Please model this.
Amino acid sequence: MNKSELINALSEETTFSKKDISRVLESFTRIIERILKKGDKVSLTGFGVWWVSLRPARKGINPATKERIDLPEVHVPRFKAGKNLRDLVKTMK
Model:
């Protein structure tokens, strides 16, 4: 499901206009980005938690040249599914 399909589904589910849903979805993502940029966590009980993790510097290999390279430490976004979401996915067939 892509963004426009999500907007359509939310519009049908809630009867709000696609324009309103789009604004809410944009605001939702901006707020999560802003909170993560500050280094805080975002938790939706039962759904999951977003946070930022530091991946330490490490050695890597350039696949084109097979040359060893140093990769710097980098901050990466992380997500862990909540219990309700994990249980829902477990029961899929």
The chain has a mean pLDDT of 96. The longest helix spans residues 18-38.
